[in-house]
Amino acid sequence: MALTTLARGSCLTTLAILALTACVAPGGGAPERTTAVIAGSPAPSPTATPSPTPSPSPTPSPRIGPAVVQDVKALVSGLVVPWAIDLAPDGRLFVTERPGRVRIVRFDGATATLQPEPWATVPARVSPNTERGLLGLALDPQFAKNGFVYLYYSYRGPGTSTLNRLVRMRDENGAGVDETILLDDVAGSEQHDGGRVKFGPDGKLYVTTGDGEVQQRAQDTSNYNGKVLRLNPDGTIPSDNPFPNSAIWSYGHRNVQGIAWQPDTGALYETEHGPSGIFPACCNDEVNRIVRGGNYGWPIVAGESNDTRFRPPVVTSGRVETWAPSGATFLAHVGPLRGSFVFATLRGVHLHRIVLDAEGRVVFEERLLENQFGRLRDVFELPSGQLLVLTSNRDERGRPATADDRILLVTLG
Ligand SMILES: [Ca+2]
Fold this sequence. Notes:
Layout: H1 8-24, E1 69-76, E2 82-87, E3 92-97, E4 101-107, E5 112-114, E6 120-121, E7 134-139, H2 143-146, E8 148-156, E9 162-172, E10 175-188, E11 197-199, E12 205-208, E13 227-231, E14 248-251, E15 256-261, E16 268-272, E17 286-290, E18 315-316, E19 325-330, E20 341-345, E21 351-356, E22 362-368, E23 376-381, E24 387-391, E25 407-412
Antiparallel strand pairs: 1-25, 2-3, 3-4, 4-5, 4-6, 7-8, 8-9, 9-10, 11-12, 12-13, 13-14, 15-16, 16-17, 17-18, 19-20, 20-21, 21-22, 23-24, 24-25
The chain binds calcium ion (CA).
C-alpha cells in the first residue's frame, strides 16, 4: 500500500511507525509497542530490544478492558459548532465551523493558537436547531504538494430547497482559493445531511450522506441520499465502484456522520443515526462494517433484524437509548489501544469506545468523558496517539459552557 494513498491520520501514524521500524531495522527487531513516537520529534534511540522474528507490521493488541483517561485539556476555546478536523504536515489544524468558516489552529504538539481570520468561508445554509451547514473536511494525502482541501456543505437551492455539495479548495499563502465543485445537488434538508469526508487507504475520497428526511431515498440507488459515496479525488467515479457510473459504495443508510478504516485490515466502518420515534421504533443508532455494494436496510429495518436482505449492524444503541453518533476513528497508534474504534456522541454526551475481535464482533464497549464536556462531534487521532475531540454545544441542542465550543486534547492510556 502506497503511503501517499493513506488517510491523513493513518499516514502520519504509519510514517511514525515506519520511522521507528527503520530505526531498529539494522538489528532486525520489531518496534517496541510501548514506545511513543511523535512526528517531527528526534528519531528514537536504536537501542530497542530486538525481537527474534522481524515483524513487518505491528500486531494489533487492543486491550479488552477500559482505557484510562490520563489527561484532558482544552486546546482551543471559542469555536462555533466545529464539525470536522484534519492535520496538515506543517502542523496546522484545519477545522470547519458549521456556519461556514474553515479555521486554522497552529499546533506544536503541546500548545495551540487559533488564527483569528478564517482560512476560507463558504455560503453554507444554516439556521437554528438544524443539522445543515459546513460539515466535513479532509486534506488531500498529497496536501504538501497540491494544497488541496475538500469540504462538504449545505447551501440554499432553488425555491425553499437545501442542497449539499462537495468542493475542493487550494491553500495559497495561508488562505483557501479556487473553490471547485466536485459533486453537487445532493438533496438536503434541515436534518439528515450526512457530511463526513475522508480519504480511504485506497486513495479514494469517501463522502457520507443522509436521507435528507425522505426515507425512501436510502433504498434508491438512482440518488446519492442515504449512502456512503466513493470518488476519485478529482470528483470522477472510480471504475471499480459497484454500480456503473455511480459514486455509491453502500446504501440503505439513514444519516451517516462517521467513517474510519481499521488500521490493520483496512476494513471500513461507519456510525449512523437511528430514528427518534417512540418505543419500539426508536433509537437503534448503528455501527456498521461497510462492504462494497452493501445494503444496510434503512428505512425497511433499523438496528437488529432477521431480514437477510440487509447487512446487520456490528452494534447498536438498542431500542431505548440514543447515542447520536458522529465522527469516528480507529486508534492506530502502536500500543494497547490500537485497533479500538472510537466515536463521538452528541445526545450521548460521551466518547464511545468498542473493541472488536478478529471476526469483527464487539468484545468490549465503554463510555469515556461521559457528561463532562457535553455534546461531542468528532474525534481525530494525532500522530502522538493523543485524541482531538470537538464539542458541539453551540448547535442549539446543548448547554454551552463559556469556553465552548472547544477542541479537547485527550490522552488515553
Ligand atoms: Ca441498518
